[in-house]
Amino acid sequence: MPEGIKDKIAIIGMGCTKFGELWDKSAEDLMVDAFKEALEDAGIDKKDIQAAWQGNQYTEVNIGHSAFPSSTTLKLPFIPVTHVENMCASGTEALRGACYAVASGAYDIALALGVEKLKDTGYAGLPEVTHLMVRGTKGRVIEPTYTAPGMFAMMATRYFARYNLKPEEGKKILAKISVKSHHNGTLNPKAHLRREVTIEEVMNAPMVTWPLGLYDCCGVSDGAAAAIVVRADMAKNFRSDPVYVKALQISVDSGASMLHTDYDYTHVEPSYRAALRAYEEAGIKDPRQEISMMEVHDCFSITELVTYEDLLISPRGRAWEDVESGFFELDGKIPCQPDGGLKCFGHPIGASGLRMLYEMYKQLQGKAGPRQIKNPKLGLTHNLGGNPPRAVVSVAIVGL
Amino acid sequence: MVGIVSYSAYVPQYRISRKTISSAMGWLNLAALPGEKAVANYDEDSLTMAVAANLDCLQGTERRTIDSLYFATATAPYQERGSAAIIATALDLRSDIRTADFTNSLKAGTSALLLACESVKAGGVRKALVCASDCRLGKPGGSQEMIFGDGAAALLISNEGVMASLEGSYSVSYDFPDHWRTTHDKFDRALEDRLIRDEGYTKFIPEAISGLMKKAGMEAKDLAKVIYPCLYPRDHAAIGRRLEFQPGQIQEPLLAVVGESGTASPLMMLVAALEEAKPGDNILVVSYGNGSEALLFKATEEIEKRREGMGIKKRLASKRELDLYEKYLTFRGILPVEVGLRGEVGPTHMSVAWRDRRTILALYGVKCKRCGTPQYPAQRVCVNPDCGAIDEMEDYCFSDKRCTLFSYTEDHLAFSLSPPQIYGMIDFEGGGRYVFDITDCESGTLKVGVPMQMTFRRKYADEVRGIYGYFWKATPVSE
After folding, report:
1. Percent of chain B with pLDDT over 70
2. Number of A–B residue contacts, CB under 8 Å
3. Chain B residues with beta carbon closer than 8 angstroms to that of A256
């Protein structure tokens, strides 16, 4: 195992816009809003930034190709700017670029920015896969006519079958996850969806992709988030409460999950692999005891359920017990989605990884207002792109 | 001896009751016909139905031994671009074979059959596959809409293992314009029914039958079954009486259960007759369209060796009611429904479709020679995490493998002309896995682990660029 980047990088400023259906804001407006907040939070000037990474997924229908969207919008002063895309993990991928560059000694201060303007694509939900993602490949013809919720629904179908859950039993467990996130969302002024829901409402909601209903699916939102990272030994020059990066790992599926019959479709292998590496990098032996809080990629309720298991917080097949006991609620042992998660904060794809980090950062600094978690030490973000049989997953761990 | 060595018919799963059509269009069209007609699913056309019939027909036959494929249809998806070549690729036939499309006339089915038999007899080919398929459109409110039904038939011709040998033929050709359609027309135009009856059916069919019987030195009593189409049930019976056939000798038309299926019609009835035939039976099959063609077959001892379920009965029994006339119109593209942004069709990259034609049309993947793992689509680097061999693959066909449903969903967000859009992860017997669309499947009927099979379908129709995308889908194995 290489020595990793533990405690080599500190986050000294962050910004995050309100997420939602922001019809009056352009992608450029959102970038400026997040950037401005991050600069003010860090107390630095734009000219102090030496390099930048911009994360975004639906580039063609969103912000446009290359690094120009951010460099010209923010008028970044002739510094290196890189566009990165790794599906829904693009935000964390941008952060990884910035962190690794600073850790290498190439730069002292770098910017990571994620943005997505989904509501300009014209679609309810994500844009059609065959129109954008696989155009020009044989996937155009051989991939099924599928949607993201469908690929995750198949994980629920399989999970229910494997653990002998009747559909209504399974759906009830998933409903509790959504109810929890909806509650947390009401405490967050920047969240897209701010309304309590009941288990009955979730279970009786219109079906999207069986067995997942409307409230099993996250918000489709516009938004941006940004982080300014510096060499750890410089951090205290900027602020008294910088947040240190303890681990930052990404795992991408090899293709085995989609094509090889060993895959059980009741977990996400890259989640598990990234978690193992992140715990090792951070020196964490018992995540269930050591992690204080999490923001996981709850694009769908089933994703959150299996992620509890993939992150080794809950035993395989038994995450439902922790859901039942309130383990992941705001006053539980490991609060999960304190800001409402993708479910209610919303999911502007390229921004989501940095939005998760924003919540962990604010919680660690004690600035999370009515949803403040008592005395957190280590926060984990889990950012998943693609779908269960073909996923890219990042796991980041941050702490004081 | 040259003749039929295997046969099959395909009838799409959907049937629409003619009462359903009447209740929608009866205000305009008072003519009521009994029974139901077969309706191709939204993802089927004449080409995909032909593939289905051929796959059944080729069971037990090494596909690489086929030397020619003739496809007859009046409803080819493309006016230019050979359908037979697409079908041959889907069936994984060799590339050094003869393919030809027989089209425009409704007697094209028997023409293809006759030419296939003659080419085998001449020694040019050893195994010839013949298929006929049609999916004809009748204008809403017209009698053709009531009458036309969709279906296909396939026959394998050879001189070894012949179940029914060709004993003779007689063809008549007339430019009788009882119906016609130009490339600009969506629907057929037809003459008055009485003229078609008096000048068409009741003249050409007896002429062909009498001509052949005279040539063969046979009388009416020598035939076990005589097969001929006629749009008008009463006149169908009258033609038989005029030729002195007993009712039991006349093959029951499929009008009330399938409908008039164009070029496929006489061959589907021939398949039905072969399914019941005994050794020694003389079977006369006659087509109608710009004249008529009569072919005489004699069943041999081999007919007793027919495979279980071979024929049309199984397909006739497996059916699902299409209870909405509007859904029928939508499936056939007659009613332009709102498809939304997700229903729009993007461009097809034809160079990719050409390069990956075996992956797409023949459902070919590879099998790793080192670890034995089958994988779809083809990989150069083995997907088995414990292997990882590079360029140690051999071609591997998935279309004929049995498979099971590993997981699935019913998607109400993804576009389908027959929502919900159902798809699932399919595990192939012997290894290999992929996610496929699922078709011919009713909402709420799937379960993890049920047996499935692969079926060749039209995945999308890009009307803007004139492209039909064909690929394989999974379908539950019918009980």
Report:
1. 100
2. 143
3. 383-385
Q: What pTM was computed for the model?
A: 0.96
Residue B479 pLDDT > 80: no
Q: Which of B379, B425, B459 sits opposite A141 (nearest CB)?
A: B459
Q: Percentage of chain B surpassing pLDDT 90?
A: 96
How many Cβ atoms are within 10 Å of A209's Cβ, its own excluded? Answer: 29
Nearest residue in chain A measured CA to CA from B340: A123
Which residue in B352, B423, B433 is closest to A146 by CB distance?
B423
pLDDT, position B460: 94
CB contact under 8 A, A154 and B415: no
Q: Which two tokens stand for residue B259?
A: 């409908």
Residue A131 among the catalytic residues: no
Residue A208: closest C-alpha in chain B: B412
Q: What is the pLDDT of residue A280?
A: 98
Question: In whole angstroms, what is the distance from residue B448 CA to residue A128 CA?
Answer: 27
* CB–CB contact A265 B352 (8 Å): no
Whether A131 and B346 lie within 8 Å, measured CB to CB: yes
pLDDT band per the 50, 70, 90 thresholds, residue A326: very high
The hierarchical CATH code for the domain B398-476 is: 2.40.50
| Domains observed in chain A | 9-124+223-237 (3.40.47.10), 147-213+244-399 (3.40.47.10)
| Per-residue pLDDT tens digits for B399-439 | 999 999 999 999 999 999 999 999 999 999 999 999 999 99
In which band, very low, low, confident or very high, does the pLDDT at A140 lie, cut at 50, 70 and 90?
confident
CA distance A394 to A248: 7
A207 vs B contacts (CB less than 8 Å): 410, 412
CATH of domain B3-331: 3.40.47.10
User: For residue B198, what are its two tokens?
Assistant: 């008096």
Enumerate the domain spans of chain B: 3-331, 398-476
pLDDT per residue as tens digits for the range A369-390: 999 999 999 999 999 999 999 9
B415 at interface of A, judged by CB pairs closer than 8 A: yes
Over residues B210-232, the mean pLDDT reads 95
Q: Which strands form A109-117's sheet, in the order they lie side by side?
A: A81-84, A51-55, A109-117, A222-231, A9-16, A243-252, A390-399, A378-387, A293-295
Q: What backbone torsions phi and psi does residue A94 show, to the nearest 5 degrees?
A: -65, -45
In angstroms, rounded to a whole number, what is the distance separating the alpha carbons of residues B50 and B132?
A: 7
Burial of residue A356 (CB within 10 Å: 0-12, 13-18, 19+) is buried
DSSP letter string over A253-303?
Answer: --SHHHH-TT--SSS-HHHHHHHHHHHHHHT-S-HHHH--EEE---SBHHH
R_g of chain A computed on alpha carbons: 19
Do residues B158 and B128 touch, judged by C-beta distance below 8 A?
yes
Nearest CA in chain A to B423: A144
Contact A209 B413 (CB under 8 A): yes
Structural tokens at position A203: 């279970």
Cα separation, B234 vs B49, in Å, equals: 30
The question of whether A347 is a catalytic residue gets the answer: yes
